[in-house]
């Protein structure tokens, strides 16, 4: 068994450990932000961490109304331009905490008046040391080059950050996530069987929308890293603005289709792909009765229903973590089917240093 697959299986425990250990720190942040709410949130990251940041952007804007920007590190590292960040919150995300350009962005943000948070899996890292507040993803050492358990830990950290920023997310709801991750893991055998069909795939598209848009990027990245598939990733809206033209009969298409606000447009996308005779794999869950019978279903009802007196939060609020796990398992399985080693992708190392 690959290290990647072993680490995918560790995610329920890692999520539970992270939530338990980091909650007190986020309660302190919540008290701080109640007194002085950031006018803007800026997120800095690269690679898989950047996909997690994309999720953070959607989540924070949807649940708090605070504008969120994804940093362009080259503005600081290559153009040496100073951004005016007084009253802003800068959150830098890095699995290793040693991503050079991400750390430069964080240091520059501190100089320009931002309060800074560092989200990392490494407590002794540069990022953890230089941030005003360090958030530790308690995933344990990740040995596979392809990040899996650190990604879901970062997603959980963004739920907690949204909570700290005033989102009406309940901690009791977040405590459901380890169990939902465990439910997703039960699909391992079915996912491996489904992967066999794509053994000779060289190109693919992955399509998402809203809170699962980031997962489209992450699923595609995992296939690029571990299976050497040229996997393009799009929102359901963007693919219709031109790229849909490349889809032809038997073209592999992977669709993240949870219940909730994005389902109507994702359903239209599934119908269009069917008309084009694409080789489509739809990922959904037990609560989505309208999804195709051929869909890969997480055996849990993930449609989020707030309590009678609870906040009006999106129905797909809790889907991103359980939805990425079958995608991770798919990439690991397909890599094995292709006779590749998902733990040591060619040309890659665990820590990438860029400026």
From TrEMBL:
Keywords, in A-Z order: Repeat
Domain SIS: from-to ranges: 29-172, 194-345
Name the UniProt record assigns to this protein: SIS domain-containing protein
CDD domains: SIS_GlmS_GlmD_1, SIS_GlmS_GlmD_2
InterPro entries: GlmS/AgaS_SIS (IPR035466), GlmS/FrlB_SIS (IPR035490), SIS_dom (IPR001347), SIS_dom_sf (IPR046348)
Lineage: Bacteria, Pseudomonadati, Acidobacteriota, Terriglobia, Bryobacterales
PROSITE patterns from the UniProt entry: SIS
Gene3D superfamilies: Glucose-6-phosphate isomerase like protein, domain 1 (3.40.50.10490)
Presence of the UniProt keyword Repeat in the record: yes
Gene Ontology terms: biological process: carbohydrate derivative metabolic process
GO-annotated molecular function: carbohydrate derivative binding
Pfam families for the chain: SIS
């Amino acid at each position: 068994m690959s290290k990647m697959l072993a680490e995918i299986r560790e995610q329920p425990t890692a999520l539970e450990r992270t939530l338990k250990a980091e909650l007190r720190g986020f309660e302190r942040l919540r008290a701080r932000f109640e007194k002085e709410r950031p006018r803007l949130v800026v997120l800095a990251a690269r690679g898989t961490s950047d996909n997690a940041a994309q999720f953070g952007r959607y989540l924070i804007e949807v649940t708090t109304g605070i504008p969120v920007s994804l940093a362009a590190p080259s503005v600081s590292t290559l153009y040496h331009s100073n951004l005016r960040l007084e009253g802003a919150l800068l959150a830098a995300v890095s699995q290793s905490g040693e991503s050079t350009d991400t750390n430069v962005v964080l240091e520059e943000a501190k100089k320009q008046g931002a309060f800074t948070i560092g989200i990392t899996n490494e407590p002794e890292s540069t990022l953890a040391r230089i941030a005003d507040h360090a958030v530790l993803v308690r995933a344990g050492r990740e040995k596979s080059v392809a990040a899996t358990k650190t990604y879901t830990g970062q997603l959980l950290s963004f739920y907690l950050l949204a909570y700290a920023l005033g989102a009406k997310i309940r901690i009791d709801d977040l405590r459901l996530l380890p169990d939902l991750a465990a439910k997703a893991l039960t699909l391992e055998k079915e996912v491996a069987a489904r992967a066999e069909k794509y053994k000779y795939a060289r190109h693919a598209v992955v399509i998402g929308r809203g809170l699962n848009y980031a997962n489209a990027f992450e699923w595609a990245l995992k296939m690029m890293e571990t299976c050497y598939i040229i996997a393009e990733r799009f929102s359901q809206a963007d693919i219709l603005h031109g790229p849909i033209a490349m889809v032809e009969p038997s073209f592999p298409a992977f669709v993240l289709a949870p219940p909730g606000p994005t389902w109507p447009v994702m359903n239209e996308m599934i119908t269009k792909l069917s008309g084009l005779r694409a080789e489509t794999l739809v990922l959904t869950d037990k609560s989505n009765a309208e999804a195709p019978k051929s869909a890969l279903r997480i055996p849990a009802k993930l449609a989020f229903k707030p309590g009678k007196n609870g906040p009006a939060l999106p129905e797909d609020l809790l889907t991103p973590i359980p939805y990425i796990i079958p995608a991770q398992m798919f990439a690991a399985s397909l890599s094995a089917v292709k006779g590749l080693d998902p733990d040591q992708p060619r040309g890659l190392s665990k820590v990438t240093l860029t400026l």
